[in-house]
Amino acid sequence: MSINLLTKNRAIIVFLVFALGYFISTLIRASTATLSPVFSQELGLNSGDLGLLAGGYFLGFAAMQLPSGYFLDKYGPKKIITFFLIIALISTIAFSKSENFLNLLMSRILIGVGVSVCLMAPLTGYRKWLPLEQQQRANAWMLMTGALGMLASTIPIQWLLPQIGWRNIFLIIAGLILITVILIIFIIPSWNKTELPIEDKGISSYKTIWTHPYFLSLVPLGFFNYGGLQAIQTLWAGPWMTNVSGFTPIQSATNLFWLNLSMLVTFFIWGLVNPYFHKKGISTDKIIITGVPFSFLAIGFIIYSGENVSGFHFALFLISSIFVSLAQPAVGMTFSNAIAGKALSSYNLILFLGTFTVQWLIGVLIDLFKSFGYSTLFSYQLAFSTFGIFCMLSYLYFVIHHKDHLK
Predict the structure, then answer these.
(1) What distance in Å separates the CA atoms of residue 271 and residue 81, rounded to the nearest whole number?
(2) Is residue 257 within 8 Å of residue 155, measured between CB atoms?
(3) Which CATH number fits domain 2-190+201-406: 1.20.1250.20, 3.40.50.2300, 3.40.50.1580, 2.170.130.10?
(4) CA distance 324 to 233
(5) At what angle do helices 65-75 and 77-97 cross, to 10 degrees?
(6) pLDDT, tens digit (0-9, with 9 covering 90-100), for 303-355
(7) Which spans in 188-322 are helix H?
């Protein structure tokens, strides 16, 4: 396996190219939190519609996880991410030209399809190109890059909005996608299929993954906890601050900026300390079990604070949720290189189905509780409380079904 490892300088360059692609994918993903007031005003969207539009990205993203895992293992990251980013390029241009909600939704779903391998492609490559002790760090710093993309979706987007409009913003993003495709073609290593061991193919390899006890123990945690983290970060933090706390759009964007900056710093530090945990023999599972409950306290703090919620409250929730991010690379390292792409994309399917579901249903619940005559504040509190309960149940499921593994 050592013959596959990249030199330090080559690894840095490869990482930066992949990081640009993931930066763009999270920039698009989180843009709805900042642009939600504009979309609501132009299209008359209610909370459920807004949740569906934002969640459309995750629906398209999730739909491609299983097939993309198969293709990543067979053809390698370079060919697959290039193909999918071309879809993202076309869809982003179509989004910028859309004149109604249906066209926006369909374009956003296809954007989700197009960027669906922007994290899985590099993680699949890192399984072969980086030593084991560096893979968790690379994963954390890829997530840090994602936080940078979400950072760019706040104040920079809000500042550009009155200058050039949201349509031209998406045309600029399309240009960045084109640059990324060119860099990938010339820089990312090709995939030597002969380096992969012969192992179960197609459906049988997916059966191996989806029946694995460790994978199954992490499914609810990925669906509700990790998926909910992304749902709140990329959408519902913004509407809470504008609709409940009374922030102006620029105030909300500023708070989202600091929120995402805190995540960027957290992922950077997380990448530094992960090799230490590995060296000391502290297992991923113990870190998850010890750390995840802090996020329950944070979500309770948000619900309790009500109209006083700001970016600080959501930052506490996101930072305290950092522990659940370890589940994804842990799944990848559980399986061999031959099916690592399938394993990672299978778990990514869980994450993004969860994100779509939580993102949409929070909006549906808010509208439902409002229809019962409850205030906007109480409707948000009830919706977030429901989310918190499912997160706690998912955590308990992991703890109960993982006892034998910990022993």
Answers:
(1) 24
(2) yes
(3) 1.20.1250.20
(4) 14
(5) 140
(6) 999 999 999 999 999 999 989 988 887 887 788 777 877 888 889 889 988 98
(7) 202-210, 213-220, 227-231, 237-239, 249-280, 284-291, 293-305, 311-320
